[in-house]
C-alpha cells in the first residue's frame, strides 16, 4: 500500500522537464558503403530483380504478341433426318409452349377486393 501512495503523490509531468522536447539529431545522408555491406538487404535485391525480369517479360510478350487471324469455319448443316413419331410430338409440344408461354401473358391481373369483410 505504501508504494501506491508514493506513486499517486509523484508529479507525473516532471519527466517533461528532464527530456529535451525538440532534440536535434544529426541529419546524415545515406552512406552507400554501409548499405552495400549490409547482408540483410539481399532478399530485397532479389525481389527487385525478379520484379524487373517478370515485368520486362510481360512487356515483351504484350509487345510481340500478334492477334491470331480469325478464320471462319463453316459447318455445313445437314438436312434434318426423318423424325420419329416421338420426336415429332416433342417438336410440336415445344412449338405449342413457345406460342402459349405463361410468362408472357398480356391479360391484366384480376380485380382485388381491398375491403375487409369482418362479420
Q: Main beta sheet, described? A: none
Helix and strand run: HHHHH
Share of helical residues: 40-55%
| Proportion of strand residues | under 5%
Helical run tally: 5
Q: Gyration radius, to the nearest Å?
A: 43 Å
Q: Could you tell me how far the N terminus lies from the C terminus, measured between alpha carbons in angstroms? A: 80 Å
What does this structure look like?
The chain is an all-alpha fold and 119 residues long. It has 5 helices and no strands. The chain has helices spanning 2-9, 14-18, 32-37, 42-64, 85-99. It is flat, with a radius of gyration of 43 Å. The model has no long low-confidence stretch (mean pLDDT 76).
Question: Could you give a quick summary of the protein structure above?
Answer:
The chain is 48% helix and 0% strand. With 119 residues, it is an all-alpha fold.
Amino acid at each position: 500500500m505504501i508504494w501506491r501512495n508514493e506513486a499517486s503523490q509523484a508529479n507525473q509531468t516532471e519527466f517533461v522537464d528532464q527530456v529535451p522536447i525538440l532534440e536535434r539529431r544529426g541529419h546524415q545522408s545515406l552512406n552507400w558503403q554501409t548499405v552495400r555491406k549490409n547482408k540483410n538487404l539481399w532478399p530485397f535485391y532479389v525481389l527487385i530483380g525478379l520484379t524487373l525480369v517478370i515485368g520486362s517479360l510481360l512487356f515483351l510478350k504484350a509487345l510481340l504478341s500478334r492477334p491470331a487471324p480469325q478464320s471462319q469455319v463453316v459447318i455445313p448443316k445437314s438436312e434434318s433426318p426423318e423424325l420419329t413419331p416421338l420426336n415429332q410430338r416433342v417438336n410440336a409440344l415445344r412449338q405449342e409452349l413457345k406460342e402459349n408461354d405463361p410468362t408472357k401473358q398480356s391479360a391484366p391481373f384480376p380485380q382485388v377486393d381491398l375491403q375487409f369483410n369482418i362479420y
